[in-house]
Model the fold of this input.
Amino acid sequence: MKQLWLAAAGAGLACIACPASAQRDLQIEGPWTHGPTGLVFPDRLGTAMRTRIHEYDDAGNDVSAGYAVRQGGQIAFVTLYLYPATPERSCAASFQEMEKSVVQSYGDVQITQSGRWPSPSGRTADVGYHARFALTGQLDGKEQPLTSESYLFCPAGNAWLVAARASWARDSDFSRAFADLLHGLRWPEPLDAPAPAETPAATPAN
Done:
C-alpha cells in the first residue's frame, strides 16, 4: 500500500492512513479474484486457510488477503497485499520504509536477516526484497517472542506492488510454509515479471 504501515503480528501490516469509510471486509466464500489484475486468492492452499479479504479503497485496487497456516500444533498468520505502485518511489526505498515501520513499532525488535528473494511465483531469483525480524508481540491472543518476515516485489511496468507479512512463535519455524504459500498462488505474468534492475543514485563529485 502507498500509505504508512504499522506492524501488527497476527494481522499482517495495518494501514494507519486509509480513510475508514473506504475500508471494508469482504464476505467471500471460495476463491476471490482481484478484478484489476486477475490474481486469485484461494480459500485454501495446502495447510493455509484464508481468514480475511480486505479492501482499502473504494475502487478495490488496494487489497489484502489474510491466511492462517497450521503445522505441528503451531500457527502462523500471513497477509498478502496487492496495491498500486507509487511511480516516483523506488522499490528499494519502499522496502526500507516497510523495515523502518516495523523497527519503530516494537521496542525490542531486531532485524536478523535482510536480502533478496525470488519473484512471487519463485521463478526468478533475487528480484524481490525480504527481511526477518525477532520481536515480542501479540499472536493468537497471547504476547510472546515472535519471528516475523516481510516481503516486497515490484513488477515490471511500475503499476502494482506485491507485499507480504508473516508472523509466528519464535519456537516454531514457518519460513518454508510462508514461501510455499506465496509461491503457490497462480500469479498473472504482469505481477511476476521483474522490473529492470534499479540504478544506484550517482554520488555527487567533490
Notes: Residues 91-105 form the longest helix (15 residues).
